[in-house]
Design brief:
heterodimer, A: alpha+beta, Aldehyde Oxidoreductase, domain 3, Aldehyde Oxidoreductase, domain 4, 31 strands, 25% strand, B: 337 residues, alpha+beta, Enolase-like, domain 1, five-stranded antiparallel beta sheet, four-stranded antiparallel beta sheet, 11 helices, binds flavin-adenine dinucleotide, binds iron/sulfur cluster, AldOxase/xan_DH_MoCoBD1 (chain A), iron ion binding (chain A), AldOxase/xan_DH_MoCoBD2 (chain A), oxidoreductase activity (chain A)
Chain lengths: 745, 337
Amino acid sequence: MSIKPLIGQPISRLEGHLKVTGAAKYAGEYNVSDLLYGYVVNSTITKGKIISMNTDEVKKIPGIVEIFTHENRPSLAWFDMQYSDMDAPPGSPFRPLHKPDIKYNGQPIALIVAETFELARYAASILKAEYQTEAFKTDLEANLGEGRKPQPGLATMLKPPPPKDKGDIDLALSAAAFTSKGTFTHGTEHHNPLELFATTTVYEGKGKVTIYDKTQGTVNCQLYVGNVFGLHFKDVRVISPYVGGGFGSGLRPQYQLFLSVMVALELKRNVRVTLDRSQMFTFGHRPPTIQKTKFGSDINGKITALYHEATAETSLYEDYTETVVNWAPMIYPSPNSKMEYNLVPLDVFTPIDMRAPGGSTGLHAIESTIDDLAHQAKIDPIQFRLLNYAERDESVNRPFSSKELKQCFIQGAEKFGWDKRNPEPRSMRNGNKLVGYGMATGAWESMILPARAEAILTTEGKLIVKSAVTDIGTGTLTVMSQIAADELGLPLDQVTFEYGDSKMPFAPIQGGSFTVSTVGSAIKAAGKALRKKLLKIAQHIPHSAFKGLEIEDVVFQDGYIRLKLDPSKEIAFTALIHANKGKVIRTKNFNVPNLLKLKKHSRAAHSAAFVEVEVDEELGVINVTRAVTAVAAGKIINPKTARSQILGGMVWSISKALREETISDHNFGKYMNQNLGEYHIPVHADIHDLDVIFVEENDEIVNELGSKGIGEIGLVGMPPAIANAIFHATGKRINEFPIHFDKLL
Amino acid sequence: MNDFNFYKSQGISDAVEKIADQPDAKFIAGGTNLIDLLKYNLMTVSTLVDVNSIKEDTLSETDGAVLLNAFATNANTAYHPIIEERYPLLSKAILAGASAQIRNMASNGGNLLQKTRCYYYYDANTPCNKREPGSGCSAINGYNRNLAILGTSDHCIAVFPSDMCVALAALNATVCVTGPDGDRKIPFSEFHRLPGNTPHIDNNLLTAELITGIELPSKGFEKNYSYLKLRDRNSYAFALISVATAMELENNQITEIRIALGGVAAKPWRVQKAEDFLVGKTPTKENFALAAELIVEGAKGFEFNAFKIELAKRAIIRNCLMALNPASQLPGAQPSA
Ligand SMILES: Cc1cc2nc3c(=O)[nH]c(=O)nc-3n(C[C@H](O)[C@H](O)[C@H](O)COP(=O)(O)OP(=O)(O)OC[C@H]3O[C@@H](n4cnc5c(N)ncnc54)[C@H](O)[C@@H]3O)c2cc1C
Ligand code: SF4
């Protein structure tokens, strides 16, 4: 009997039923006994100092247990470094309630602890602070001149600085037959996952806590809490099996975690702190970024010059960076190139990665500039990209581990019907609407980090695999179960994946599209080690048919080890348990990627996005009526969850290009649309026909699974494809996101 | 939100009495606006007098005129067969507003009394003359994309954000109210107020007056009507510009026309001069364009909303053309092909 591998099957999410029926519990929903509720009070000024607060008055309200401020918070870890975390950029991390100083509007200044949530929230409305205010700066555009190079730090490992200059950019630009210049403006964006940020801390006795947290990294939070509060790591357990969306906002421990644990330890009680929707706007965000491009090509459309510069916001206390300007020389070979990336520190909270950080910003500028060059050279946008196709990554002078971008162009164009495009802008119509076709390339680096995993054969012959990794809604539980099941040749229902718990084997934070590569590889390695161990046990059984055989000589099928050449020779997993004196059989593995091998190649997922827009000629109203994204991302472990990832990225592309923006008032230094009524993300009526293609791509370098990660790639190419389609429809290039319809009047 | 009393009223007079003898008491219908205001601590109440139990039928008909129940939901009103058949303009306008969930809760009376969506009004930590008279207007030199271009004052440039009311204005509705001193009727055009130097007063309803009904004259313009809403996404966003057109034609000549603009002022905006100009004219793009100029006469744009002046004109023209063929309206009153 042979079992069809589960890898590659479109399996529905294993936890889907729990989620749609409401049975899945989120961090703010664990009903522990004797719970206290914390509600955060936020600063109403942008910069200055707290002079006084009416805490005494508010404390008199019956039911208020305590109010924590910078004045009475317990003394905590002394060194900045101890407040750091796996995703901390260079600088000194934000410390809640540390000092009376106000660094940004909305900074938490007090936590009210009460017997009920409603009471805590009411008290928060009465708590008032007197401030001494100082002048502040929050406007990136007004302070562009203050851009400077970012400080290098650990983060530089995953976010390399811009590549070195090549050739002579000025000369090349002045000699170019066609040149295109653009200034691209992106505003602030906030992640706004549906699940609010919350932490429920269970006080387990002296120095010991169990924490239910909304996070993208259980171990990251465990280490942070251990360091900040001086607890033994083994006494800190962080649990987070269901995460109602993260998009990057949970990559770093957020302040409600700190506050909840602080109160639990101080009052020796169980405590929950839930942030509300407007408080979602009081920490990390995608930074506003202003980019300038100047690209040039020769008369035949061959690119000769690439200049790309970006200036982004960061806070005054940390240098958050993104990989914005490194992409153009990777995608388009050019003898002359210059890339610059600068930061302007402002009075805001430190930005944090938000889905496709850097890539979705930079590719917009690059792909719209390329589109303009192609237009000038009168070459079809796909032809132009093929003419300038990078067979190697010239920016670092390495081959690609695999790159099926050409197939993305071909299959995407075919499915979309690109051949029906009339190249002339404003030439296609549907009634009183102008129709535009646009396309763009997307790219996202394939990363892998070290991780541990454990595999256990239970006494019933079933498989349990374990990792501390979370599942931020991407389908991690399902995909890891598939990988594990295949490794042991078991059906899915014989496999349990235990995850979302810092007690489990180490996994890094879940982001950057590296979870399947990182944790999947660790699970595969643990499964492989378990197979070897099982074979060894089988060989020790008297009269074993497996004596002297190698792992390659046997197959693992449906709960048996069988001889490849003679499948009638078999031994049941349960017999192996028996041989192991009735005890479970376990292996633990630490999977460390072979950096030397990896470094010899550039590794990236690619995509081609195709978009049709209709623009009302007189009213400017824009609709994305159709879109196709073709993705080359190595092996697709689960086409169903993968498709959902890309669809989500495509919806977000519509959001990014046309809808989403955090509105700032720089007179007050604050965000003004802190709710989902006014923070516009797309509604159903904005989403029409979306299609996804996965192009076949074999990659033996990236990892043993051959998978590249698909979390971000859906959101990289499509925003510029929308902008390019709008240009094709209207003849207008709008380089400021989101593109509001009134800009087309 | 502070603690408050909650009283389920037994009828119109009971509700009015309850409010009249309590300071800081408020009626609550669907609560879709009021509860937000309480939660954001923009308002405190001593008692909420629930008027939902006064609900009877969605509407009643007498002598061809229709009386909308003030306590009926927006959804029930929009989908009522009489409204769909005789006042499709009203139905379209209601359905262009908010979301299905909100329309299921929101009442007709509450819709007339919803607060502006000016961001500063909702942020107690910024000056706002409407919320706190005399504190200043943050929006004039701040973010004002969604604010007014007509009828503004130096004190306030807020927009009254309702869709339903734009249609009611075009239909010449009358607001029926009951107060401690008895019943009275307010023509729709006199219901809402421009800010002047009292921006904190949104309308001419007096303290303790309860809206009990909205009268629609018998003429529903079911043949030639259109509602167009332009906004930052296709649903669940307030209007940047909206237009309600109700028209009557005879032999390709306009015999009567009403054009009301939303999203531009503290009240639905109608200009008699423009409507008079069109009467007796043929319904052409050129004529509508001339009327549009008259409607936006005197408009003043601010940093982020100056586009509304041009957009309003184009929207008026388009909407009047759509009214010639109401079937051209797509669901949600998107601009049509
Ligand atoms: C997110 C969101 C989006 C929205 N989008 C739109 C939109 O696009 N277009 C649109 O038109 N509207 C929109 N709305 C507004 C919605 O239509 C109004 O909130 C609703 O109509 C108010 O009715 P209600 O019954 O819920 O009023 P409530 O919230 O109950 O009351 C509002 C006010 O009216 C008073 N009141 C209520 N009934 C009476 C009465 N009979 N007599 C006297 N006073 C009374 C209350 O005391 C209160 O002051 C939106 C609302 C939300 C929350
Ligand atoms: S426009 Fe009116 S509502 Fe807005 S801030 Fe000014 S005064 Fe307040």
